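Is this the right way to post structure tokens for a design question? Let me know if I should format differently. Anyway, here goes:
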């Protein structure tokens, strides 16, 4: 390769034809207009006319000329020869005349208004590359492709591949040096000294200050929370939190952060001074944000645990005192019986009740009922009543360390927290409790916080404020400065001129118009057509029943019929499975690397290079160890240098991380998309999302409770996305279990493969009208599997339309004026999501005010009702649509079954303490499952070819229902040999098994 970062594939395709142009490309680039013909016919010989035309079309198509004209595809030569009415064979005469070709090139460049790549154009391109690097930390290979496209767009003849590659490498190196130098110059001497001290190992200590600060908390308790707050104070004490980094792209900061997170302090110390200081500066600011997130997460968990323990104690106490309550209630029942007795004169009721039951007994019974009976719907006040001594341990540090802000609706709560903060300040001048803000106190808390008119119970007041704070953080009413996940997302939305500059581009990308009237007319027509189609076929729809219950119309669907497999499909599955070669998982990974370059995507965290001996062997071993959950010792071999334990540990720390796993996964997904058999299963436009759950038995703050899935332990959900080609193209780690469908939207926006799924299937997962609206704005179709159809509302835009039997069902009318009033703001929100300015999982913060939807949120929900109604009508009407949703969801569940088999070590439990470790290990699991899918697909295709050649009937409808999610022939236990036969390493395929052997017969019986 000419430059280290350039792949063989990039070098091979640069300025060359990659196969035959498509008919559309022939028409676009190789059609000779009248002006072209006049230029061509100025040449005097047929071979010169044809050669000139070929070079002209080549420049338009490739942006350069071929060194060897005979590399031009014959279809191009024939297409141009037909237009010129000359023989295609004339081109060979032209191809050998170098001087003629060179003179023609200059004429073509002038005629097409192209320019040679001279010193001036190199200077312009250098400036453009600097601008790209200032916006993002693009990999050199990506920058090479972008620069190529830029030159073609600017009508500049492409330079040689080494010229362009070396220019990019040189500019990138200079820019990196300037970036480091610019960041280090923002620090004063004291700050430089403080950052340098982070790398110095104190006496009698085994950790540097940097290693201690970057170690996050692992368990939840009040003492751990106090230590986490102290960690924030230590990070701020470094004194670089106020250094302005707003002009440094987040992607470039992420590169420095990832490096500082993964390498030892000694390696950071060895960096040049400018780079070392820049890395530490960016990393310390990142640490402050993530440490703040850790504190807020722990605060929520501590308050939740206190409430759960208090509620458990409350219930035990209630059960213990239930007999006393019953006795008091029975006595009071006798008193009420006297009151209601018609034979007792009213003036004698009191004296008769006292005479029969005793005044003292009645008063005691009343006090018992008052004490034991709870009048509140919210159990939190009583459950937290004994927690003051616990929260007092961290309250002062928490309020002083975590700066809080929020929406207008959160102002009373923020005032109360400010009051508590002033009460904890040392010295005199503290405010009086009678001056404490009261508006934030909810009704269930009032009786405890204000027992008398001018009296404040300071313990109940404090607990109420912290309880409300926990709720406000969840509802995104309260924000925290310098926080990754709890900051104010409203500031991240496109604003002012930034929005105006990209508005037209965003509308084109979303295929939306700024004029809302046309959009509403389109939705009105779609809704009207959908209602009428369902109503027209209502009588013939055997699966759908329209009933009236309590005066409300309801739709019900019968359970879907089980789709039986035809005998031909059952036979085909057995035939292809019997032919798949038996292989060890280690060999499978190496073979997949041999034809995809899988391991080449893993680059060093520091310099982005991957030039070490036998790196693919080490990378595949680390991936297998993580995916199988067996640890590096199980795959290490002291006799193989690339497989020693120290080498594998070094590769795992420096090469296998989230961004390289994502890049490698994109290679596998793209390779699967190139296979004709995968195209028979789907085109990549449809995907499903589902969660794979893992128990996490180690101490961590990044796991959650769910007794249904994790029993008495904590766990995480690996929410992953499966294409209709059976590949997984993205994954998200979620503590506990999924509660928000916006994680699906986040996955679609963040995925890095060539696939572009537009329709997503999922289980219900708490979807809402807002979720449907956001999906629609971004051009996605959301198709969840419904579990509560009778409870759904159907909406309409046309109030006067007559939909017959569906009139009562669709009686709710949409507020189109609300949509029209906020249409541009909705597009601005969608554009912010599309461009990554705001995260999908935090977008609800921008749509809420005071716990309820803002006007923009209501407008998005109103749009969501249109899309949800269209979805519901299609769902109840189209049996094939329901079957398609079920089929795609089944593919995701099949992937989970294979993933469970792969992830067999440590009883299938995830034993990572930190989020980064979880993401890396589960990302490796998804990558290995994709490798199995790709390997199976290739060999399934070969098996089908063999069956067809043998005269066996192979129906296309059966092929479309095959699955590559097979694993019985893959050995995942006990043997990890990463060597490949020479012919397989060179790209050949293994021989299929003979299905007539005894071994294949026995395996076929097991299947």
């Amino acid at each position: 390769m000419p430059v280290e970062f350039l792949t063989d594939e990039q070098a091979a395709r640069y300025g060359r034809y990659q196969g035959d142009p498509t008919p559309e490309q022939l028409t676009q680039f190789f059609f000779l207009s009248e002006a072209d013909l006049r230029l061509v016919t100025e040449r005097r010989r047929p071979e010169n006319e044809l050669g000139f035309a070929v070079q002209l079309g080549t420049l338009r198509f490739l942006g350069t000329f071929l060194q060897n004209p005979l590399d031009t595809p014959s279809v191009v030569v024939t297409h141009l020869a037909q237009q010129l009415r000359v023989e295609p064979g004339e081109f060979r005469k032209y191809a050998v005349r170098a001087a003629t070709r060179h003179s023609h090139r200059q004429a073509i460049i002038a005629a097409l208004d192209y320019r040679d790549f001279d010193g001036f154009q190199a200077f312009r391109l250098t400036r453009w590359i600097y601008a790209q690097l200032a916006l993002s930390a693009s990999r050199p290979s990506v920058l090479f492709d972008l620069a190529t496209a830029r030159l073609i767009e600017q009508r500049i003849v492409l330079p040689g591949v080494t010229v362009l590659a070396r220019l990019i490498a040189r500019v990138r190196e200079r820019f990196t040096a300037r970036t480091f130098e610019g960041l280090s110059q923002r620090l004063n001497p004291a700050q430089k000294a403080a950052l340098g001290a982070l790398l110095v190992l104190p006496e009698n200590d085994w950790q540097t200050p940097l290693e201690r600060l970057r170690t996050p908390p692992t368990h939840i308790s009040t003492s751990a929370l106090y230590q986490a707050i102290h960690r924030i104070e230590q990070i701020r004490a470094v004194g670089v939190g106020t250094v302005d980094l707003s002009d440094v792209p987040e992607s470039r900061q992420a590169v420095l952060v990832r490096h500082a997170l993964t390498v030892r302090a000694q390696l950071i110390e060895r960096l040049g001074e400018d780079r070392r200081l820049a890395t530490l500066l960016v990393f310390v600011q990142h640490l402050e944000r993530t440490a703040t997130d850790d504190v807020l997460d722990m605060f929520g968990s501590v308050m939740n645990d206190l409430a759960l323990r208090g509620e458990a104690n409350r219930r035990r106490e209630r059960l213990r005192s239930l007999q006393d309550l019953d006795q008091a209630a029975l006595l009071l029942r006798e008193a009420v019986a006297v009151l209601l007795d018609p034979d007792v004169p009213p003036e004698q009721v009191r004296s008769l009740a006292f005479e029969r039951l005793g005044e003292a007994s009645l008063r005691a019974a009343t006090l018992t009922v008052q004490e034991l009976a709870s009048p509140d719907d919210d159990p939190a006040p009583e459950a937290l009543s004994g927690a003051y001594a616990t929260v007092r341990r961290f309250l002062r540090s928490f309020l002083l360390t975590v700066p809080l802000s929020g929406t207008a609706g959160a102002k009373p709560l923020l005032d109360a927290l400010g009051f508590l903060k002033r009460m904890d300040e040392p010295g005199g001048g503290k405010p009086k409790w009678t001056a404490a803000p009261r508006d934030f106190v909810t009704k269930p808390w009032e009786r405890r916080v204000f027992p008398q008119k001018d009296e404040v119970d300071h313990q109940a007041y404090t607990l109420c404020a912290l309880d409300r704070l926990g709720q406000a953080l969840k509802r995104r009413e309260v924000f925290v400065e310098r926080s990754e996940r709890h900051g104010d997302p409203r500031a991240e939305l496109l604003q002012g001129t930034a929005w105006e500059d990209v508005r037209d581009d965003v509308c084109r990308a979303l295929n939306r118009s700024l004029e809302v009237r046309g959009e509403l007319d389109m939705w009105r027509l779609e809704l009207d057509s959908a209602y009428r189609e369902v109503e027209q076929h209502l009588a013939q729809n055997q699966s759908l029943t329209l009933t009236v219950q309590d005066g409300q119309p309801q739709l019900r669907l019968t359970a879907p019929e089980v789709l039986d497999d035809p005998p031909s499909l059952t036979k085909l599955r057995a035939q292809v499975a019997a032919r798949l070669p038996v292989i060890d998982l280690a060999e499978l990974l190496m073979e997949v690397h041999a034809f995809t370059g899988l391991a080449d995507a893993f680059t060093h965290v520091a310099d982005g290079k991957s030039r070490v001996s036998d790196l693919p062997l080490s990378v595949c071993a680390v991936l297998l160890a993580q995916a199988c959950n067996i640890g590096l010792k199980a795959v290490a071999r002291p006799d193989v240098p690339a497989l020693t334990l120290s080498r594998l540990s070094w590769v795992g720390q420096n090469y296998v991380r989230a961004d390289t796993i994502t890049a490698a996964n994109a290679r596998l997904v793209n390779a699967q998309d190139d296979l004709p058999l995968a195209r028979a299963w789907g085109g990549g436009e449809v995907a499903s999302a589902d969660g794979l759950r893992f128990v996490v038995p180690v101490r961590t703050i990044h796991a959650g409770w769910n007794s249904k899935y994790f029993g008495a332990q904590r766990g995480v959900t690996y929410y992953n996305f499966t294409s209709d080609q059976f590949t997984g193209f993205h994954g998200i780690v979620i503590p506990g279990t999924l509660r928000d469908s916006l994680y699906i939207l986040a996955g679609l926006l963040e995925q890095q493969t060539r696939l572009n799924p537009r329709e997503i299937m999922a289980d219900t997962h708490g979807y809402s009208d807002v979720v449907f609206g956001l999906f629609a704005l971004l051009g996605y179709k959301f198709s969840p599997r419904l579990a509560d159809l009778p409870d759904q509302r159907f909406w309409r835009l046309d109030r006067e339309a007559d939909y017959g039997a569906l009139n009562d069902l669709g009686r709710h009318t949409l507020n189109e004026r609300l949509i029209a009033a906020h249409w541009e703001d909705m597009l601005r929100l969608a554009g912010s999501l599309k461009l990554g300015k705001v995260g999908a999982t935090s977008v609800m913060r921008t749509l809420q005010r005071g716990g309820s939807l803002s006007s923009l949120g209501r407008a998005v929900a109103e749009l969501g009702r249109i899309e949800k109604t269209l979805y519901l009508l299609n769902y109840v009407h189209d049996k094939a649509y329901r079957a398609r949703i079920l089929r795609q969801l089944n593919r995701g569940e099949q992937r989970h079954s294979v993933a469970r088999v792969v992830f067999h070590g440590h009883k299938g439990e995830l034993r990572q303490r930190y989020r980064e470790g979880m993401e890396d290990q589960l990302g490796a699991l998804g990558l290995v499952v994709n490798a199995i899918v790709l390997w199976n697909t290739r060999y399934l295709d070969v098996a089908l070819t063999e069956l067809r050649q043998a005269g066996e009937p192979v129906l296309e409808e059966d092929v479309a229902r095959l699955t590559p999610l097979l694993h019985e022939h893959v050995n995942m236990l006990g043997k990890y040999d990463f060597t490949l036969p020479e012919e397989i390493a060179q790209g050949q395929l293994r021989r299929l098994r003979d299905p007539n052997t005894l071994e294949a017969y026995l395996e076929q019986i097991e299947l």
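Format looks fine. Someone answered above. Worth noting: The chain has a mean pLDDT of 84. The CA atoms of residues 204 and 540 lie 83 Å apart.
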